[in-house]
Amino acid sequence: MRLPDRVIIVEVGPRDGLQNEATPIPTAVKVAFIHKLVEAGLRQIEAASFVNPKVIPQLADAPDVARGLPNSSGATFSALVPNEKGLDRALEAGFQRIAVFTAASDSFTRKNTGMTVDESLAVFEAVVRRATSAGVSVRGYVSTSFVCPYEGEVRKERVREVAERLLALGVDEVAVSDTIGAAGPVEVTRTVEWVLGRVPLTKIALHFHDTYGTALANVLAGLQLGVTTFDASAGGLGGCPFAPGASGNLATEDLVYMLDRMGIVTGVNGRKVVEAADVVARTLGRPLTSAAWRRMRASGGECTVPP
Ligand code: COA
Ligand code: ZN
Question: Does the CB atom of residue 55 touch ligand 1 within 6 A?
Answer without folding.
Answer: yes
